[in-house]
What we know:
Layout: H1 7-12, H2 15-25, E1 41-45, H3 49-52, H4 65-68, E2 73-78, H5 82-96, E3 101-103, H6 107-110, E4 117-120, H7 124-136, E5 140-143, H8 151-164, E6 168-170, H9 178-188, E7 195-201, H10 222-226, E8 236-238, E9 246-248, H11 268-279, E10 289-296, E11 301-302, E12 305-306, E13 317-323, E14 329-333, E15 339-344, E16 347-351, E17 356-357, H12 359-362, H13 373-377, H14 386-396, H15 404-423, E18 427-430, E19 435-436, H16 440-444
Helix pairs in contact: 7-8, 8-15, 11-15
Amino acid sequence: MAPALNRRQTLKSTLGWAGAAVLASRTERAFGFTSANERPRMAAIGTGSRWYQKATGVDSRYGSAPDMRKLGDYVAVCDADAYRVGLASDIAKEWTGESPRASSDYRSVIDDPEIDIVHISTPDHWHAKIAIEAMLAGKDVYCEKPMTLTIEEGQLMSKVCQQTGRICQIGTQQRSDKGFLTAIALIQAGRLGEVRKATCSIGGGPTSPEIPVTEPPKSLDWNLWQGPTPEVPFRYLAGDNGETQSWSRCHYEFRWWYEYSGGKLTDWGAHHCDIATWGLGKTQTGPVSVDPVMVKHPVPFREGNPVDPSRYNTATEFLIRAVFADGKEIELRHDQGNGILFEGSGGRIFVNRGRLTGTPVEDLESNPLPDGALEAVYKGRELTDHFRNFFVACQDRKDPISDVHSHHRALSTCHLAGIAARLGRKIEWDPETEQVIGDARAQSFIRRDRRNGFEIEIS
């Protein structure tokens, strides 16, 4: 895309024009990652613990950046917290030998024609806006899960990705894990018979004490951090809680506020419901009903909205059942550990990040899967880690293993579960039109208004 073309002009362009322009202007340099001068240039937008925990001041190797930097170079870092930008800048300089561009304004990254890949590790409510603008500006995207805050954002993500031809990998790394791939291969080989149900045990959500209103840290641009969401006071309470040693509306703890996330339903739900949807063969459709059989919240709700702004508000306990047109089911529940139980007419298997069990698994010793079975599940690609899969997809311009479209379908089930949980009633859903049937209030939760200045513009 011509450097003189500014962001406003880019976003006002039609999707078809944008897709043609960016595809025509890409250089071969972006598609190689073996030699130093061909490594893609990356920008990190959001430099919290999921990017790299060291950038939060914690001495830990947790995060995806150490794996991403093996295949590309971080030349820009961006975050609403200047303290984290400073740490991330130092880390990137250690890796590349050069200081990256450091900024709080992600638009400077979007406008830079020299950046090939945008790595999004912001809170959930920022994911879709940044990813859409990045794709429109001709960049490939690695976006941490969950991809979106609402179903409408997923629809927009899918549309923009398809029409621009960009590569977008979602950070649901279980899709590149051999245990989960084996589980899917067993299902597709008929080793469980007809699979009728998947139970996703994703853990319960936390509660908090009353969190007082206080001034945000001087390093944090609280207005920018809130972005598209309604403006509210900053809340913070120091204490022995999690990686931030606090309760707040902000870093890490944003997960437990419906304003910014979906609680466990979209946190671990994004991982396990994705695998469940894949196993049931429902990656191109959705449920027809979502029933909140049992849900507990830590604060009262009125018409689907929490009425106490001082405490975490996402569901703490739940059993939510999603039923598809053919009667197959996905259950999301807070108990029974962590993992996915697939039940079929000829057997059952349980899979999580450390275990794959069940009679069909035991039978592999005497009746192994045919050669190439896992590769077939892995879209015909050579088995590798999730990050290299993304870079290979950027090179050959074919869908990565965790593509936008299938993730949108799986995550829609999680979002519908959250809507049903908030309203306390069963929702009927049309997966073809992606509309709630006969419930205007529930339908209103499919999208959210965005604050002035933080709209998503695609045409």
